[in-house]
């Protein structure tokens, strides 16, 4: 006879504890990447204090690369390398295309340009930028799944766009303050044009609709989203002198996380 627990049974728990060697290896890699990413993010203000702004660029680049690697490992465990590779190339390519179109035409984000601080660049777009799309869009998908209650469909796609756009409440003011890009005409959100957020939402929606993500491990991806929320809030508020964006981002990303949690437990 099997002893039943809420949503689990003893046999399931034992099976989860008996991981195969390859699964144990992947779990260790995921844990090491998570620790390395957290260390790189926490080191940002320390790096600036000791070595100055130039060192921050290298530190930030390392944090992005490590976070991308962490997200890809998580995706691979659900999708395999082929599906993961296809999705990664698609997200990065479309993210770069949107940015290249934006810097050339002013659409869909508004008129802006990247400075020379982030290198290398292709068509005036730093290669780090499409990696940033790749490192945060899958966590946004996981949050959107909690909000929509299913993979796919218009609600899931719309929530995905909103979950990613909420991150930009932190990101754009911070990157402008660090001199990574400049707006031709500063807008109403701490110097950021409101059109920018519509462009973020639209781009994320189109990429999500094309990828059609499903059956992802939501817990590690939501963890990345949640840690980003906390790190950005603390960093902008306490270290970077951007209290307004810190509060707005805290409410934006945090509100979506709270709503996803509430809807999940409400359905349960």
In summary, what is this structure?
This protein is mostly helical and 268 residues long. The chain contains eight helices and six strands. A hairpin with a 2-residue loop joins strand 4 (121-122) and strand 5 (125-126).
Ranges where pLDDT stays below 50 over 5 or more residues in a row are 1-14
How many domain units? Answer: 1
Percent of residues in β-strands: 5-15%
Span between termini: 26 Å
For the sheet with most strands, the description reads:
2 strands, antiparallel
Strand order of the largest sheet: 1-2
Coarse structural class: mainly alpha
Instruction: Average the pLDDT over all residues and give the rounded result.
Output: 92
Radius of gyration: 19 Å
Proportion of helical residues: over 70%
Element pattern in H and E: EEHHHEEEHHEHHH
Quaternary structure classification? single chain
Per DSSP E runs of 2 or more residues, the count of β-strands stands at 6
Topology:
Elements lengths: L3 E2 L2 E2 H8 L3 H31 L1 H53 L6 E3 L6 E2 L2 E2 L1 H21 L5 H24 L3 E3 L10 H18 L6 H22 L3 H25 L1
Antiparallel strand pairs: 1-2, 3-6, 4-5
Helix pairs in contact: 2-3, 2-7, 3-4, 4-5, 4-7, 4-8, 5-6, 5-7, 5-8, 7-8
What does it look like?
By secondary structure, the protein is mainly α. The chain has one domain. It contains 8 helices and 6 strands; from the N terminus they run E-E-H-H-H-E-E-E-H-H-E-H-H-H. The protein has helices spanning 10-17, 21-51, 53-105, 128-148, 154-177, 194-211, 218-239, 243-267; strands spanning 4-5, 8-9, 112-114, 121-122, 125-126, 181-183. The strands form 3 sheets. It has a two-stranded antiparallel ribbon with strand order 1-2. It has a two-stranded antiparallel sheet with strand order 3-6. Strand 1 (4-5) and strand 2 (8-9) form a beta hairpin. Helix 2 packs across helix 3 (53-105) and helix 4 packs parallel to helix 8 (243-267).
């Amino acid at each position: 006879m099997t002893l039943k627990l809420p949503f689990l049974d003893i046999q399931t728990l034992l099976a989860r504890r008996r991981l195969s060697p390859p699964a144990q290896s992947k779990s260790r890699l995921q844990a090491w990447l998570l620790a390395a990413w957290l260390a790189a993010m926490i080191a940002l203000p320390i790096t600036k204090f000791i070595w100055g702004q130039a060192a921050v660029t290298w530190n930030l680049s390392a944090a992005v690369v490590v976070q991308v690697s962490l997200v890809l490992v998580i995706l691979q465990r659900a999708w395999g390398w082929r599906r993961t590779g296809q999705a990664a190339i698609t997200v990065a390519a479309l993210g770069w295309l949107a940015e290249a179109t934006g810097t050339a035409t002013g659409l869909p984000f508004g008129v802006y340009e990247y400075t020379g601080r982030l290198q290398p660049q292709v068509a005036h777009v730093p290669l780090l930028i499409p990696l940033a799309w790749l490192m945060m869009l899958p966590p946004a998908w996981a949050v959107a799944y909690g909000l929509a209650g299913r993979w796919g469909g218009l609600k899931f796609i719309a929530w995905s766009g909103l979950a990613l756009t909420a991150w930009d409440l932190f990101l754009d003011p911070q990157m402008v303050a660090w001199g990574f890009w400049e707006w031709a005409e500063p807008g109403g959100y701490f110097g950021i044009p409101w059109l920018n957020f519509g462009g973020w939402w639209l781009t994320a929606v189109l990429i999500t609709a094309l990828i059609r993500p499903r059956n992802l491990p939501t817990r590690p991806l939501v963890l990345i989203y949640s840690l980003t929320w906390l790190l950005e809030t603390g960093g902008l508020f306490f270290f970077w002198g951007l209290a307004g964006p810190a509060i707005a981002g805290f409410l934006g990303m945090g509100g979506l996380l709270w709503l996803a949690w509430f809807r999940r437990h409400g359905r349960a």
